[in-house]
Amino acid sequence: MRVFVVATLLSAVVLLAILSRAVVGRAAGSARIVLRVSNWGSPAVESGFMTLEREIREEFEQMHPGVRVQFEQIPGFGQYAPKLLMMHVSGSVPDVIALDASSAAVFIDNGVVRDLAPLVAEDPEFRLADYFERVVQIFRRDQRVYSIPLDFTPMMMYYNRRLFDAAGVPYPQRGWTWDEFLHAAQRLTIPADQPGAPPRQYGMYFMNVMPFWVPWLWTNGGDVLDPTGHQATGNFDGPRSVAAMQFLTDLMLTHHVAPTIDEGKAAGVDLFRSGRAAMDVKGHWMMIDYQAEGLDFGVVDLPTNTGQPTTVIYASGLSIMTKSPHADLAWEYIKYMTSREVQVRRVSSGLAISGNRQAAAHYAGTPVEDAFIAAVEYARAPWGATVERYPVVEALGEEMMEDLLRSRAALGVQTELHRAAQLIDAALAEP
Amino acid sequence: MDHQRTNWRGYVFIAPATIYLTVFAFVPMLLAAWMSLHRWHLLKAEHPFVGFANYVALAQDPFFRNTIANTVLYAAFAVPLGVITSLAVALLVTRQLRGVGIFRTLYYIPAVSSQVALSMVWIWILLPGEQGLVNFCLDRLNAWLGTGIPTDTNFLGRPGWAMAALVAMSLWVGLGPRMVIFLAGLHAIPEPLYEAAALDGCNARQRFWYITLPQLAPTTLFVIVTTTIASFQLFTPVYMMTKGGPRRTTDVVLYHIFNEAWQKFEVGMASAQSYVLFAIILLAATFQLWIMRRGLREETLQ
Questions:
Q1: What is the second-level CATH architecture of the domain A156-312+387-429?
Q2: Labelling A184: which of A222, B146, B231, B242 has CA 20 to 30 A away?
Q3: pLDDT for B17-56, tens place per residue?
Q4: What interface predicted TM-score (ipTM) does this complex get?
Q5: Among A82, A106, A402, beta carbon nearest to B247
C-alpha cells in the first residue's frame, strides 16, 4: 500500500516536471518577438474598418521579420481603463495601448505609460509638429509627452437638413446663440396627434451622457470644476452652470423639444439617426452610421452665449506601457501607425479625424469635415485628461441629471447642483 | 484504543484542501484585514497606515449606508419568498407522479447555468415595450381582458421595480438547490409518523402543520441561513442588469465593494467594506441560529 502511494506521488511529480518543461521550452524555443497591442472594442464586431486595421498590422509584421503583432481588444468602453490598469498592477501588460483622452490622467499621473519625449528627441525621422498641437497638448505634461495622437473628434452639432427644409427653418450658422437654437428646436418639433402622446418629431435628441452634455456648461461660460481641476463648488453650482442646466432640462420638461428619459428609452433607437429628431450633439464617429442611413446632415459649432465658440475634444493616442519589455519596437509601431500614409488609409472609414495634420488635410474640403477640423483650434480637452478621479465626477453628474429630469420640481436645479458639487468636492478631496 | 499512532496518510489526504484554503482563503482574509487598516490605492507606491479611519469613514458615508439598506431590503424579500417558494415546489415534486423527474431537472437548470447568461435572458424578459416578454404578455392580457395595464414599463430603469426584478430573478435561480435540500429533508421524515397521524384521523393540512413542518425545522434553518448569506452576496445580476441603478436603488454591498476595489482601486477601503459585510452576515446568521435553536428547544420541552 505504502509503495503504491509513493509510486503515485513520484510519477505525478515526474509528469508535472515534464509538462512544465514542455511549456517553458516552447516559449523559449521561439525566436519571434510578440508585440502586444490593445485598444477598446469588441472582437465580435467584424467591420470593414477592422479588416483594414488587420491589414495595416500585417504590413507592419512584414516590415519587421520575426515580429508578431498580437492584437488584444478589450470589450466594453467602461472596462477599458480599469482592465489596463489592473494589467499594469499585475505586471503582464500590452506593449502599445490606445490612450483615450477622457481617461488619460490616471495613466499619466501614476506612471502607467512611458514618457515618449526621449524617443521623440532621439528619432530623426519623427516630428511632433506633424500632429495637431492642441491634441498633443492633451497628452503633455510640461516637456513630457505620453501619447502620439492617433485620431480625435470635437463634439459638434449635427442637424438634419431635410427636416430643416421641411419646417422652413434656415440652417444654423457658426456663432448662433442659445435663443436661436431654442427657436429652431421649437419650430422643428412636431406634436403628437393625440394629447399626452410623445411628439412625432423632436427638435433635438438628448441622452444623459455627461461627455456629450458637458459642453453646454462651457458655451454658457460655466464649468464643472475650477481651472485647477480641484473644486466643483462655486463652479458646477455657479450661476452660469445653473442657468445652463436649467436651459437643458427645460428643453425636455418645459418646451418638450427633446425626449424625456422615459421617451428616449421607450423609443429604443437613436432618434436623430432614425430621422425623428432634427439636431444632436455628437462626434465624428456617428457620421459612419448617418451616412449608412442615408441621412442628409450638416454640422455646425455648438450654439454659444459667450460670443466664443467652444466644445470638448475627444482624442486617442498611442502610448507605450511603462512595464513593456519592447519599448523600441513599440515606438516603431507607433511611428508607423501614426504616419501620414497609414493614417490616410485608416481614417478613410470616417471614424474620426487623423491626429496627423497631413492625413487630416487629405480629407478636408467638404463643409462637414472643415467644420470639424476648424473646431480643433478652439476645442478644450476633457477634464478626464487632467483629473484622475474624473470618472467619479461623471457618475455623480449623470446621477444628478437623471434626478433633475425626473423630479426637478421637487428639488430645484440650484439645490441639486449644489448638492452634486459638494459630493464631487468630497470625492476629489479624499487623500 | 491501545495506542495513538500518527497516520501520515491522513495528512496527505487533507493536504490539498488545506493548501487550497490557506492560499485562497485564509491568507487573503488576513491580508484584507491588514489592508483595511491602510489607505491602500493599487496604483500608488505609498500605503500609509490609517488605523480604523476607513471604518470611521464608512460609518459616515451616505452611499455605503445606502448599499447596506438596499442589501437588507433585498434579503428581507428574497429570503422569506425564496424559502416559501422552494418548499412549495419541493412538496409538489415529492409526489410520485409520472414525469416528476423532468420537473425536478427543469427547476434545477438555472442553478447550473451561468449567472451572466441568465442575466442576459432576464434583461430581455424585462425590456420595455413589445420586445420585453413581460410587457408583451401584459399587452396580450390587455387585448384579451380589455384592461389598461401599461406595457411600456422599463422594469430595470425604474426605482423599486429594478429591486423587485432582482428579487424575482433570485427566486427562480435559487429555486433548484433549495428545493433539493427540502426534498432530502422530506424524505428523511419517518413514514410511521404519517401512518400514525392517518390512524388518528389527521387531514393533509394537519399532517403538514404538525408533522412535516416541525420535522423539517433543521432543514428550514439551514436553507434560511444559506439563502441569507447568498442574498448578502448578491452581485452578478446587479453587475449585468442594473449597474446599481436606477438612482443607486440596487447598489448592493458586494457590487459597491467591487467598484471600490476594481474601478477606483481603493483596495484598503474595499477591504474595510468587506469586513463590515462579513460582520453583518455573521450577526445575521448567528441571530437566526439562536432564534431557531430556541424554538427547537421549546418544541422538545413540550
A1: 3-Layer(aba) Sandwich (3.40)
A2: A222
A3: 999 999 999 999 999 999 999 999 999 988 999 999 999 9
A4: 0.77
A5: A402
